[in-house]
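I'll show a record.
***
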Amino acid sequence: MPSSFSGVVVRFVRACPVTAAVLVLAVALAGAEAFHRATLFDPLGSRHALGAVEELKFKGEPDLHGPLALWEGEWWRIPVSAFHHGGGSAQPFDPVQWLHLAMNCLALACLAWLLEPRMPRLVYLLFVLGATVVSVLPEFLLEHLAYGLSGVACAQFGALLVLRRRDAYVADVLPPPVVWLAFGWLLMCIPLTMFDVAPIANVAHFTGLAYGWLAGQVVFGRAATRAGRLAFAAAHLAIVPGLYAATHPVWIGRYHWYLAGLESETDRRVERWQQALNRDPGLARLWLLIAEHEFRDGRPIDAWRTILAGLDANRDFERGDRFARRLWRFLRSREVLRQQARQILAERFGPEEPAWRSRLGIPPSRVEAIADLRLPGRAAAGAESTEPDVGRFRLDQQITLPPVDGSRDPRNLTAPAIDPDDPSSAVLGRPL
């Protein structure tokens, strides 16, 4: 058995040297990653240390995270990531990672056995390198971290779909049931990802499949002409702007937040924050940072407007609630600012204003001044009472009692105006 297995390995290496080198590199990286986790504590992670794109946190800003090394311009991490394999365990041996690696290696080896000997060696090498980049690049443009060589395997399968129409042996090994089974697996991976059963790089799969089919047409099919090959080769130039876009994703809000952290001037930093929020209002922390900056800059109304906009976009932002309550305590002591703040609150939340007033501890702008007063003999004009000596009055209207104790002048019990922002204006026991 050992000699038989070694014989198969030797024949495979001789027939498919490029694929064999790819498999050795993938297995070596998985082993190096396991050794790195077992021997070193690296806060940035083993995959990052071994050249892959990894989710990192910006120092001093725990809410800011992303592929920061990629945003620093390290584009080469994209193709290297394809040679790593997924897994989320911090233990040296991650069974998910090794299962992913084993499945991809088996698929690559089986497909390469049919494809690599039928292509010129240099052409196949360029094909594998192209499939490596082209399959995973769209994942990074979509803010997905992609690991594994399954995109390359799909590219091999796409090329074989063309070859099987012209090669009887390949058609015999890949009959229609096998082809449909492969397509079924690719389609089944979509709901597995949608329902969080498994994180599968579906975009890489279908991009690799399309790339392989085009390559197969150029090498084996109808486009196997000088013009077709030149056009296919020229199309690879699109990889350059693609890599540039992946390292400069200006459409991502967190990327502008990351750039803001590199700015030394406060005004430029705030401008970057605004650009980040224009692209992603869900960055709750930035609303707070801008509001705090505006308050320190002597613009409390601007800070109020900003934090309310942030709360509107992030309804469960507790830190924003706390800042808004503190800011209101500052604004309520200044009549002009208090009125402006109330108006901004009403404009921002409309029918929801009462709920937000309650949430932020803001009293209503108008208090209905009604009280039950016990008066002698229902003496007050306009009183409505269900008992002989009790009247219900609006305290903001004239309440006059006839003179008593020998006085010639009537008594005026009209209450002073109630100020919602002055709790002492309607305290129990305040003399009328």
Remarks:
- Confidence is low (pLDDT under 50) at residues 378-390.
- The beta strands are 56-58, 61-66, 370-374, 384-387, 390-394, 400-401, 411-412.
- The CA atoms of residues 19 and 170 lie 18 Å apart.
- The longest helix spans residues 17-39.
